[in-house]
Amino acid sequence: MAMKTFEFDVTATVVVSLDESLVPDDEWRSTFYPHIKTLADVASHAAYNAAVNNVTRLTVLDGFCDRDDKLLKVDVEWHEPEMHHAHQPPVSDNLKTVEFTPQLLEQFKLAHAAAVAASQNEFMFQGNEYLVAYARYLIEYSNDTFWKQSRK
Predict the structure, then answer these.
(1) Domain ranges of the chain
(2) pLDDT of the residue at 87
(3) Which end of the chain is more exposed for a tag (fewer CB within 10 A), N or C?
């Protein structure tokens, strides 16, 4: 039997409404996620988990299981998938491949931390623009990847 491969871009709009009391304090950050400092960071964490892990209740969201579900409302609207043949991926002049070494990741973390400290929504690093919220997940993923590689 011949297999055919298809590639899809799947997107969603995630709307997060949350109570201001969910802004974490220093003790919470030291236990759970040191990079979640603002209400927007909490909203980004909730949006990511809603889209990726199908978690939309606060009592199931990592770091918030002791809080009331009424403090968070998450709505996910999935958009119609756009199909691309696997052998002809979409081409864009704006797409770039970025590779991190452990040393480069440390520099990226410093640039991200400076942007967070300055309350910026985006920042430049080595000629590329990054959203602060996305960079946080990029850092988490890269940290995990480098840790797994170092354990082999």
Answers:
(1) 6-83, 96-150
(2) 45
(3) N
